[in-house]
Amino acid sequence: MDHRTDHRCVAGSAPQALRRTLRKSLGNAAVAGLLLLGGAAPALALMSPQVYATARDGAKSVIVLEVESVAITPRAFGTCGVTGTVKLVERGTAYSVGQKVTLDIPCARPNALPPLGGTIYQETDRLQAAKFGRAYLDADGKLVLSQYFQLEALP
């Protein structure tokens, strides 16, 4: 008889712990939803920071360019063409200082709500205002996991 009582006690406490966990998870989901509705979407990324760090570490080329022009997508979000001159080559041999490049950068207008995913969208107004940018590129010259950073000055 004591054996049955022990099982009922353990079984009865598990649903309570599960309910507490679910309530906490739903609260966190609600906060994330409010952040998305509040316009923070372009800055959010849904992969862990380690995934992006690994992508940067594995990039075949890392260049810093002086931004000369930015072609903004006509849509609320998409790809912007950033054209500039390579000022520094931090990794790789595919690029040289003084070379002209155009990079496809994921971008979104302020307050746009791009789809959820691992893409990091740069705000178009900030993209246009930046004087320099650092790009982490694969062997084909494409950004690795949206890894482009706006810079105010040369490093």
Overall description:
The chain crosses the membrane at residues 26-47. Keywords: Membrane, Transmembrane, Transmembrane helix. This protein has 155 residues and is an alpha+beta fold. The protein is built from 3 helices and 6 strands, in the order ααββββαββ. The protein has helices at residues 2-40, 49-58, 124-129, and strands at 61-71, 77-91, 100-108, 122-123, 132-137, 143-151. Strands 4-3-2-1-5-6 form a 6-stranded mixed β-sheet. It is globular. Mean pLDDT is 81; it is low at 1-43.
Helix/strand layout:
Elements: H1 2-40, H2 49-58, E1 61-71, E2 77-91, E3 100-108, E4 122-123, H3 124-129, E5 132-137, E6 143-151
Parallel strand pairs: 3-4
Antiparallel strand pairs: 1-2, 1-5, 2-3, 5-6
Key features?
membrane, 155 residues, transmembrane, 6 strands, alpha+beta, disordered N terminus, six-stranded mixed beta sheet, transmembrane helix, globular
The secondary structure category is alpha+beta
**Largest sheet geometry:** 6 strands, mixed
Give the CA-CA distance, first to last residue.
Answer: 74 Å
Morphology: globular
Radius of gyration: 23 Å
What fraction of residues sit in β-strands?
25-35%
Total E-strand runs: 6
Give the overall pLDDT as a whole number. 81
Low-confidence stretches: 1-43
Strand order within the widest beta sheet: 4-3-2-1-5-6
* Secondary-structure element string: HHEEEEHEE
Approximate helicity band: 25-40%
If helices are DSSP runs of H or I spanning 4 or more residues, what is the number of helices?
Answer: 3
